[in-house]
Amino acid sequence: MLACTNGTLADTEVKFSDGAAACVILASGGYPVSYEKGKPISGLTDGQLAGEENITVYHSGTAIQEDGTLVTNGGRVLGVTATADRLTAAITQAYAAAEKISFEKLHKRTDIGFRALKANCGERITAALYNLSVIAAQCHLPSRGGSGEEEKPHGFAKGSPQGGAVERSETERL
């Protein structure tokens, strides 16, 4: 990022890595029309989540008050980004990390990554969404796209596009 701002990007080696990333935006109440500023943000240490190896918190609408308190200062306040081997894991980790951060009137979407999963995985998406809805329930997030049924024994979940059971190992490639 520094190379972008100081004009040396052409001289910088850009490295790519395999895997996936997912980012959950934490927005301030009222966004995008009008939003309140100055709400204290809790859960971060030096602007990041302590002990979270594959999580980066990007600041967009934040400010530091004279007393050192981190506060909201814009509509899109933070981008909580997780990296993992698979997109499903990155999404799960991003939502779990986002739950550790709070400020008054915080809002976030609950369907981040679902469109990408559907585009890349076709019919297997129903099983993946079911698994994500189970995780969302455990994280106290609203469920989106899942079948709403209880978890089935022996690693099977109901709700495949064919109407039968889907073995969970089938979704592990996501």
Structural class per helix/strand content? alpha+beta
Strand order of the largest sheet: 2-5-1-6
Measured as a percent range, the helix fraction is 10-25%
β-strand amount: 15-25%
End-to-end CA span: 29 Å
Could you list the spans in which at least 5 consecutive residues all have pLDDT below 50?
A: 142-174
**DSSP helix count?**
4
Largest sheet: 4 strands, antiparallel
Mean pLDDT: 77
Radius of gyration: 19 Å
Q: What is the molecular shape? A: globular
Care to count the β-strands? 8
The helix/strand order is HEEEEEHEHHEE
3D structure, described in words:
By secondary structure, the chain is of the alpha+beta class. 22% of the residues lie in helices and 21% in strands. The strands form 3 sheets. The chain has a 4-stranded antiparallel β-sheet with strand order 2-5-1-6. A hairpin with a 5-residue loop joins strand 3 and strand 4. The C terminus is likely disordered.
Features:
21% strand; 22% helix; single chain; alpha+beta; 174 residues; 4 helices
Give a short summary of the structure:
Helix content is 22%, strand content 21%.
Task: Give the SSE map.
Elements: H1 2-6, E1 20-28, E2 55-59, E3 62-64, E4 70-72, E5 76-84, H2 87-98, E6 106-107, H3 114-121, H4 125-138, E7 156-158, E8 165-167
Antiparallel strand pairs: 1-5, 1-6, 2-5, 3-4, 7-8
